[in-house]
Design goal:
Blueprint lengths: L2 H21 L3 H9 L5 H19 L6 H16 L3 H8 L15
Helix pairs in contact: 1-2, 2-3, 3-4
Length: 107
């Protein structure tokens, strides 16, 4: 993720947190809607999972909180490292068609 994307995500979380503090709801809705304008949806969902993971780690102590924290770590890591054909095309500027490899035939 580029520095501009991280700064945008922080600004969006600040705005969404302010709305949540004033109204009492809307943090995920605002964050996903605004952040997905510049980031892929998988990155946006991973960014949403991080504060939830931090809250669980801070509130639930002991072995019972370890499971949900590890699950959210896996979800975030999996979503951020997942490469889709569309993201590959955006990054390389080339087509996403697979290359046909010659197949050895047995006689």
């Amino acid at each position: 993720m580029a520095t501009e994307h991280i700064l945008l995500a922080l600004a969006v979380f600040l705005l969404a947190g302010t709305v949540k503090g004033l109204v009492g709801l809307g943090l995920p809705t605002i964050t996903i809607a605004l952040t997905s304008l510049v980031l892929p949806l998988s990155d946006t969902i991973a960014l949403i999972a991080l504060p939830i993971r931090g809250m669980i780690a801070a509130v639930v102590t002991g072995p019972i909180g370890l499971g949900p924290v590890q699950v959210l770590d896996g979800v975030g890591a999996g979503l951020l490292s997942h490469e889709t054909p569309l993201s590959r095309r955006r990054a390389s500027g080339r087509t996403t068609r697979p290359v046909r490899l010659p197949v050895a035939r047995s006689r």
